[in-house]
Amino acid sequence: MSLLLNVLLSLAFAGAVGGTLQFWRAQLDAARRDAMQALAARRGWALTETGERLGRAGTLRLAPRGGHPWTVEVRPKDGPLGEAVTEFETEEPRWTGGTLIVLAHPGELPALEPVRRERALRDLLGRKVGRLSLGLAPVAAPSGVAALADADPARRVDLPDLARAMAAWRPAMNGPRGIPVLILTPEGMRLRLRHPLDRAEPMEAFADLALDLARLIGPG
Fold first, then answer.
1. Could you tell me the superkingdom of the organism this chain comes from (predicted)?
2. Pairing state of beta strands 45-50 and 59-64?
3. Global confidence as pTM
4. Which is nearest to 120 in space by CA: 178, 158, 111?
5. Cα dihedral across residues 125, 103, 154, 69: positive or negative
6. pLDDT tens digit string along 50-59?
7. Phi first, then psi: what are they for 137, rounded to 5°?
């Protein structure tokens, strides 16, 4: 009888702890959502969330209510091999003459044979951007950043200016996932992080970095 009582008490305790954790998580999620809504209201941005179900995160989207159009999206994993990302995107600025990838990186990109180079770039940039980078070649870049391009980026951007702006970023995650990756193509500009930003303060810093980079690149 005492054994059964102990089992029942253990189950009751586990249920109470589980309920407390769920409540705490719900409160934390609500606080983060409120902070994000407050950020959007203060900056004049629109905040939307779509696709959330059964406690699983959906897509969070920020966009300005007026002026030059852009978006920041926090997207969940899109499959077993996918990864959650935070990405700023705008159609302007763009580079009609080529494709450029710039990332905050403390050294030159490795000069490896094709197979090893592909693996290294995929590990550094993620699968999707890694595939995009395969047609690009490393180019000379200032200390603190590495760059890949299929044409001379000096025709379109000032890499030292971009390097200084990207050096101000304070990663919320160690390793390659915390590195901001700038992508400039004929279709527009993107700034990408390989992890989701779910708090207002780093989200604002990320959006400001992206807007600063867009201003530095300028129309063209």
1. Bacteria
2. antiparallel
3. 0.80
4. 111
5. positive
6. 866 545 567 9
7. -125, 145
